[in-house]
Design brief:
The strands form 2 sheets. Strands 2, 3, 4, 7, 8, 9, 10, 11 and 12 form a 9-stranded mixed beta sheet that branches. The protein starts with 7 loop residues before the first strand and ends with a strand. It contains 10 helices and 12 strands. The chain has one domain: LigB-like (Protocatechuate 4,5-dioxygenase, Chain B, 3-Layer(aba) Sandwich). It is an alpha/beta fold. Helix content is 33%, strand content 23%.
């Protein structure tokens, strides 16, 4: 009798959004993490417990420095954070709700990350949570965060959630069902405004940052951030749990590797409490 091997979700954007060669990827991520903090002034000190991060998900050339401002906070927490709940938008596949993966492991050029085997059972009572591998197979919003997590945390379990047509309250309910604790980190993957000129983008992103920093999830429109739905859900959950939030960086692609005519906004925040 034959048995099926556990499904592994292979990398979809290695070699395009980030280096596909393991050693080059390792050097790239480590260099981003080691670079001096920029965009938010002096380095930000975050007190424990760190509960969640918000980070961008474009190609590393563009958003890597901003993402690193969030993920560099994790190196002192290696060994203490044992599970990461990672939420991002669906760029390619319609999803009526929140999509789980049936995979046992997500792979990057740096190796495999085992999925939390308890996540599906924890979420089974929520009507709007479904298993939909197609939503994960080519989705970059989750994948590009993984090498940063691998280089900072080492070994951890992953609970990846692609958020489609879901309300803030539904996302917050999913987070509650997963019972985040001091050994769990939530990461929401989102970019900000898209394809405005530099001046317009900065104005729009400042308004979005104000909404994020006041946990005003209802003020964030779909066009303000590509990951608006997981972002609103996190902020709804954070408000209910009385978390504090600090800005780590707020820039756009004109500040990193692009022109000023059509830019994409990037921000990074840390939530504690």
């Amino acid at each position: 009798m034959s048995t099926r091997s556990p499904r592994i979700r292979p990398p979809a954007v290695a070699g395009s959004f980030y280096p596909g060669d393991p050693e080059e990827l390792r050097r790239t991520v480590d260099a981003l993490l080691a670079a001096p903090a920029a965009g938010a002034g002096r380095p930000v000190e975050i007190g424990p417990p760190l509960r969640a991060l918000i980070a961008p998900h474009a190609g590393y050339e563009y958003s890597g420095p901003v993402a690193a401002s969030a993920f560099r906070l994790l190196r002192p927490l290696a060994g203490r954070i044992r599970r990461v709940i990672l939420l991002g938008p669906s760029h390619h596949v319609f999803c009526a709700g929140i999509a789980l993966s049936s995979a046992a492991e997500f792979s990057t050029p740096l190796g495999g990350i085992p999925l939390d085997p308890t996540a599906a059972e924890s979420l089974s009572a929520l009507r709007r949570v479904v298993v939909l591998d197609r939503a994960h197979d080519h989705e970059h919003s989750l994948e590009v965060e993984l090498p940063f997590l691998q280089r900072t945390l080492g070994d951890f379990l992953l609970a990846p959630l692609v958020v489609g047509e879901a309300s803030a309250e539904e996302v917050a309910a999913a987070l509650d069902a997963l019972v985040p604790d001091d050994a769990t980190l939530i990461v929401v993957s989102t970019d900000l405004s898209h394809f405005h000129d530099d001046e317009t983008a900065r104005r729009l992103d400042r308004a979005t940052a104000q909404a994020i920093e006041t946990l005003d999830f209802a003020a964030i429109r779909d066009r303000d951030a590509c990951g608006a739905r997981p972002l609103r859900g996190l902020l709804c959950w954070a408000r209910a749990h009385r978390l504090s939030i600090r800005r780590l960086d707020l820039r756009n692609s004109a500040d990193t590797a692009g022109g000023r005519d059509r830019v994409v906004g990037y921000g990074a925040w840390a939530l504690t409490g």
